[in-house]
Amino acid sequence: MKTSLEKKFIDLLEKHQNIAHKICRMYTYDADSHKDLFQEITVQLWKAYPKFREESKFSTWMYRVAFNTAITLYRKKKRRVQTSPWEDYDFKISSEGYDSTLDDNLKLMYAAIKELNDIDKALVLLYLEDKPYTEISEALGISEVNARVKMNRVKTKLKNILNP
């Protein structure tokens, strides 16, 4: 039987799982890697959840944990990171059907975003989620002014990538 902590976690995760899927889309290149990263993010979120102090929104905290997990697993591709076995956790969440068939413009935009560095990718993803700059700065650990300046620079980079 699920504890109230597990139930609350699963409810929050199901509600905000699109955050993890977007991060997976940015840091993986195929469906299997996407599933593996999503699974690892879920495990890391569960491990960290008892320490979540609700000083920020769950979605902001989730984004930070998911982003750090993706960076840890995929930044150094030569190094093999040990992931946690999924079977060790008895809770399962219902997953939104992830549809990888996107229109050509969206594919071009994602390809351009993938060319950015890790911090810029994270910034763009939060911006596309319509997060306020206060939340973006909190999630990335930078000042609000710095987040705004970086976003303007990233917009210019994306324009140059899309229209060389």
Automatic annotation (TrEMBL):
<dbReference type="GO" id="GO:0006352">
    <property type="term" value="P:DNA-templated transcription initiation"/>
</dbReference>
<keyword id="KW-0805">Transcription regulation</keyword>
<dbReference type="InterPro" id="IPR013325">
    <property type="entry name" value="RNA_pol_sigma_r2"/>
</dbReference>
<feature type="domain" description="RNA polymerase sigma-70 region 2">
    <location>
        <begin position="12"/>
        <end position="80"/>
    </location>
</feature>
<dbReference type="GO" id="GO:0016987">
    <property type="term" value="F:sigma factor activity"/>
</dbReference>
<dbReference type="InterPro" id="IPR036388">
    <property type="entry name" value="WH-like_DNA-bd_sf"/>
</dbReference>
<protein>
    <submittedName>
        <fullName>RNA polymerase sigma factor, sigma_70 superfamily</fullName>
    </submittedName>
</protein>
<comment type="similarity">
    <text>Belongs to the sigma-70 factor family. ECF subfamily.</text>
</comment>
<dbReference type="InterPro" id="IPR007627">
    <property type="entry name" value="RNA_pol_sigma70_r2"/>
</dbReference>
<dbReference type="GO" id="GO:0003677">
    <property type="term" value="F:DNA binding"/>
</dbReference>
<keyword id="KW-0804">Transcription</keyword>
<keyword id="KW-0731">Sigma factor</keyword>
<dbReference type="InterPro" id="IPR013324">
    <property type="entry name" value="RNA_pol_sigma_r3/r4-like"/>
</dbReference>
<dbReference type="Pfam" id="PF04542">
    <property type="entry name" value="Sigma70_r2"/>
</dbReference>
<dbReference type="InterPro" id="IPR014284">
    <property type="entry name" value="RNA_pol_sigma-70_dom"/>
</dbReference>
<dbReference type="InterPro" id="IPR039425">
    <property type="entry name" value="RNA_pol_sigma-70-like"/>
</dbReference>
<dbReference type="Pfam" id="PF08281">
    <property type="entry name" value="Sigma70_r4_2"/>
</dbReference>
<feature type="domain" description="RNA polymerase sigma factor 70 region 4 type 2">
    <location>
        <begin position="108"/>
        <end position="158"/>
    </location>
</feature>
<dbReference type="InterPro" id="IPR013249">
    <property type="entry name" value="RNA_pol_sigma70_r4_t2"/>
</dbReference>
